[in-house]
């Protein structure tokens, strides 16, 4: 009986590997001018900055970046393990603080958005940047795995994130946008996922029959 149990375990493990490719995939989204990012600025509430090369990040009452990535390149049937947003810090003010990414919950257009028509942010669930206070000429990072999972599964629409400095200071950071000439310093989203390969029905049937036959022979001689 013990030998039968061990054999069943082996067959179960084999079946698991038939239902998954067993390897995590990584994709980095780092668009150029086709990317969607800008700022909204309370000091010029009717101005649009969609073609700007850099993004100022201040507090919720001054100005902050809006960033959205097209994640439609992801296959439908995947498990998303990790999703990290990165912005390259071009400059840091003498007074700087951590920043949080908040999910945008209404649509916006890069070339028409202004402070006066800016989209809403979900301020109830911010993601603080990883690794403490970012330094100049480094990457600031946010783990937005939960956001990306919600977007990919259709729980909530993908309108991107707004990045807000956790301070009353009006200007804290300056980031490059997707329009910046050096492509390696543009905003990027790195997603780690597992593409679950679902077996064909014929394969499942054959494995099931083989398992049944194996158990039947073991139990009945």
Structure description:
- By secondary structure, the chain is α+β, with helices and mostly antiparallel strands.
- The protein has two domains: 1-19 and 201-221; 23-197, Jelly Rolls (Sandwich), CATH 2.60.120.
- The protein contains three helices and eleven strands.
- The protein has helices at residues 2-18, 145-153, 201-220, and strands at 24-29, 36-41, 54-57, 63-68, 78-92, 99-103, 127-128, 139-143, 161-165, 173-176, 188-195.
- The strands form two sheets. Strands 1, 3, 5, 8, 10 and 11 form a six-stranded antiparallel β-sheet that branches. The protein has a five-stranded antiparallel β-sheet with strand order 2-4-9-6-7, with no helix packed on it.
- α1 (2-18) packs antiparallel against α3.
- The chain is globular, with a radius of gyration of 24 Å.
- It starts with a helix and ends with a helix.
Radius of gyration: 24 Å
Count of discrete domains = 2
Structural class: alpha+beta
Strand content: 25-35%
H/E element order: HEEEEEEEEHEEEH
- Main pleated sheet: 6 strands, antiparallel
The total beta strand count reads: 11
CATH architecture of the largest domain: Sandwich
**What is the fold-level CATH name, i.e. the topology of the largest domain?**
Jelly Rolls
Spans where pLDDT lies below 50 across 5 or more residues:
2-20
The tally of helices reads: 3
Helix content: 10-25%
Q: How far from one another are the termini?
A: 12 Å
What's the rounded overall pLDDT mean?
84
What is the highest CATH level, the class of the largest domain? Mainly Beta
The best one-word shape is globular
């Amino acid at each position: 009986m013990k030998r039968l149990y061990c054999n069943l375990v082996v067959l179960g493990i084999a079946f698991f590997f038939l239902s998954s490719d067993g390897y995590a995939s990584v994709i980095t989204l780092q668009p150029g001018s086709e990317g969607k990012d800008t700022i909204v600025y309370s000091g010029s509430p009717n101005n649009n900055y969609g073609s700007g090369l850099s993004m100022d990040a201040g507090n919720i009452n001054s100005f902050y970046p809006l960033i959205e990535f097209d994640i439609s390149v992801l296959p439908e049937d995947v498990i998303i393990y990790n999703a990290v947003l990165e912005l390259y810090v071009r400059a840091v003010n003498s007074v700087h603080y951590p920043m949080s990414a908040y999910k945008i919950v209404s649509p916006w257009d890069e070339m028409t958005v202004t402070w006066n028509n800016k989209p809403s942010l979900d301020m109830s669930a911010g993601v603080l940047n990883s690794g403490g206070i970012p330094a100049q000429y480094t990457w600031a990072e946010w783990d937005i795995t939960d956001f990306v999972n919600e977007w990919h599964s259709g729980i909530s629409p993908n309108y991107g994130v707004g990045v807000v400095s956790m301070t009353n200071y009006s200007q804290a950071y300056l980031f490059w946008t997707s329009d910046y000439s050096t492509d390696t310093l543009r905003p990027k989203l790195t997603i780690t996922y597992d593409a679950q390969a679902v077996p064909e029905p014929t394969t499942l049937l054959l494995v099931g029959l083989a398992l049944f036959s194996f158990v039947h022979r073991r139990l009945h001689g």
